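About this split. The held-out portion is used to measure sequence recovery: a designer receives only the structure tokens and must propose an amino acid at every position. Recovery is the fraction of positions where the proposal matches the reference. Here is one held-out target exactly as it appears in the evaluation file.
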């Protein structure tokens, strides 16, 4: 394992969830919003240290393509949708296993998978949150012992935010996101795309 990392620079994945929330019942607008987020990703690939929200082969291929332009290898975390909330994104646990087992990602020379990431259900039910983190820990060790048994860099368990990081650390997390605890709640003020 590695020491717990405190990521206080903001959680793009969480902000993406919030950005897309108004579109959850409008697939066409949601599609446009996602394309906007992908466009942002293309423009920052030379500035990021890690992408913590990899959830498809298509996205992996795009990261690889953009990273090649800058002669970089981008560490990535596979985002797993472990929460009950529909507004969260990522692979299901089963889809994550299938993605890894399929192995197409191994041909992407500029993408390196360093671990897993999830956001738990926003709930006061500590047992529910602990169960979700425990499922992630189990998935991580399963993948570590199989597909990544020869990959020492596959060592990041990124789950836990300001409201649940203590539970997360107890369930194997070594990377938590606690920006709200440090800086306080940030207001979300964005102009949403027009509906044509």
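Reference sequence for scoring:
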């Amino acid at each position: 394992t590695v020491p717990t990392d405190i990521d206080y620079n903001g959680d793009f994945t969480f902000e993406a969830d919030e950005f897309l929330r108004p579109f959850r019942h409008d697939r066409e607008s949601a599609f446009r919003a996602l394309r906007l987020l992908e466009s942002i990703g293309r423009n920052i690939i030379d500035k990021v240290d890690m992408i913590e929200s990899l959830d498809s082969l298509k996205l992996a291929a795009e990261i690889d393509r953009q990273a090649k332009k800058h002669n970089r290898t981008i560490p990535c975390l596979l985002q797993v949708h472990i929460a009950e909330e529909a507004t969260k994104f990522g692979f299901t646990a089963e889809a994550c296993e299938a993605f890894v087992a399929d192995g197409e990602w191994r041909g992407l020379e500029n993408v390196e998978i360093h671990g897993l990431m999830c956001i738990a259900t926003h709930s006061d039910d500590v047992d529910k949150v602990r169960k979700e983190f425990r499922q992630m820990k189990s998935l991580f060790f399963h993948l570590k012992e199989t597909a990544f048994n020869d990959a020492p860099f596959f060592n990041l368990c990124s789950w836990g935010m300001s409201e649940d990081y203590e539970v997360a650390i107890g369930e194997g997390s070594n990377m938590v996101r606690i920006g709200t605890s440090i800086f306080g709640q940030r207001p979300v003020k964005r102009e949403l795309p027009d509906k044509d």
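Annotator remark: Residues 23 and 31 are 9 Å apart (CA to CA).
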